[in-house]
Amino acid sequence: MTTSAPTKSKNPVVRFLNMNTSGEVGGRDLPLWRQVLLQLLTLFITAEVLFPILYIVTLSFSSKTSRPSALELFPKEISFVAYQQVLDRPTANPVTFLQLLLNSFLLSVGVGLAALLVAVTAAYAFSRFKFKMRQVLMVLVFVPLLMPAIGLSAPLYLLMNSVRIANCGGGVTAFYPFTSCGASTGQAIFNLRDSLLGVGIAMIAGALPFAVWNLKGYLDTIPKELEEAAMIDGADPDQIFWQIVLPLAMPQLAVTFFLGFIGHWQEFALPWLFLTQPKDYTLAMTLYNMTGQYANSIPWNRFAAMAIIVALPVAIIYIALQKQIVSGLTAGGVKG
Amino acid sequence: MATTSMQLSREKRKAVFRKVSLPYLYLLPAFAVMGVITFYPLIYQVIISFTDFQTKDLLLQLASPELKKVGVQNYVDIITGGLPVQNFEFFRVLIYNIWWALTNVMVHVPAGVLIAVLLNTQGLWGKRIYRAIFVLPVVVPPIVVGTVWKNIFDEQYGAMNQFLTLLVHLFGQIDPVRIRWLQEYSPPIPWLLPNGPLTLAYYAMMIANFWLGWPFMTLVATGALQSIPKDLYEAASIDGASGAQQFWNITVPLLRPVMIPAAVYGFTLSFNLFNFVYFMSGGGPARSTEILVTFAFDLIRNLRLYGVAAAFSVIIFFVALVVFLITNRITRATESYTEA
Predict the structure, then answer these.
(1) Nearest to B256 by CA among B87, B110, B43, B143
(2) Containing domain of residue B19, as a range?
(3) Which chain A residues contact residue B133 at CB under 8 A?
(4) What ipTM score was computed for the predicted complex, to two decimals?
(5) Lowest mean pLDDT among A37-41, A51-55, A233-237
């Protein structure tokens, strides 16, 4: 419970925004000519940062479907036509915006929660227990982190593709790869590879090692005094984990979940590789479709609106994340 | 008496067993999941990397009668350029990939540090507002950044050419600027990377990724700057050190332990920057901006050469391993530097 807790936050965004500048404002120390010079410099950088943002926001507020022939960085009109059209019918496919949103949310939340659930006990074991093979097992969890996610997508694609349910006809259903229809291939009912479930499972392969390492790093920083005190009081390791460590780790679990969410929300490679049915598409895939080979048929104001809609949840979570971390640090803990 | 002591020891043995097995029990869920979706696929990947696995084998996979064992042929083909793929030379792509990551970090880190120092100037007006604005690029998802900048660099209607048109108008030019940022193949500076064309698309992507990259470095550097004691600067200025001398002799050495891990992180991130590259240039024109991961993706999704893709992924793994070993060494070296 220290007042300096927010500045100790591990998240650089939070530290950056919370930095105390109050003691320095006033400008008395700075000669005017230098102040003006530095202001010009910072304004120039501000212009660089705002340039693409202003451009895309202006585009999204335009009611014209054609692209502007000259540079416009400030909206001449505020029209929500583009947003409305994106929400009504985002692509040429017969998929509603709600469906795309739901798919993106299902994947991001599902993968985040599943990875966390499986990772937390492993992180605790690595952080607190001493046992044989600890080093070896830790390296085993670390190795997949080295591999870029794309590096595992070929075997995942092939293995998922072999998990299928087919109607063989005559009331016989085959569950590949365990049973098959025999000589005929049967009529496909379900293919794990071509489903959100399959994509989710494949994404967990990347998310899990990250969650284990992130949580272990945090658990290492939780002081052991509380656990030792509980041990003296006769609590067994299970009780210590569920009743002491887990509640303490909750804020970090939330942070890990949201960091994962930000990543999964933008996940593109695996869904784009696995999914073929428009009803399963995610927002990231739709955004790509709007800039890909069909881009010429899509009005730019709608593309701009879509880009902003996709960016919004991530930006909001960054702001929400900040509060999470700060309150997480000031609640609980042995310090102070 | 005897029975109770035996019971006790049995209880004790049970407790000991529980204590020994507990860590493994806690690890079980994670390793069970990873076994199925990570380790098994990794082994499977190595196996099929020695075959000519293609669409024809999708149904029966390893049991497919048409599946041919080709030995190390896939690896040889990748390295020597024997793949049935246009515009792909392994070493050109590898060197471009390293160059891409390196040049990104080389501009992001100095720019980030300088802007952090600028923002840290005592008495600068509007610091809080500037900080709130400068953090914006960190908050925007890279896929959105990639798509937006792709449109900014559009030949006809892109904001970049329109902006340049405005500029040249100031100098009396009338013709609108029509630079084919993402399509032009001939490299503007041919000698810069001798073994491959650095097309205009590379520069366009450097500009776009610069927008995304320096604010993160500024975030990190600002945190480190705030922890440098102010009296160091005061003592230096009493001794008559100029601003530049203070920067090189106090700020830079004290920032180094923080900025080097950040630079290493930035390098690894840029090295595998799939989403941004795929959304902005798609690796084009003519694979000139292709990096290893985007090419691997192309092998799987469009070319459907699964055996080759598996071999390529194994190679990527070893490249990543080498990159990790080198960067890890650099980070370790800076750690001992701070302790010394």
Answers:
(1) B110
(2) 2-44
(3) 46, 49-50
(4) 0.84
(5) A233-237
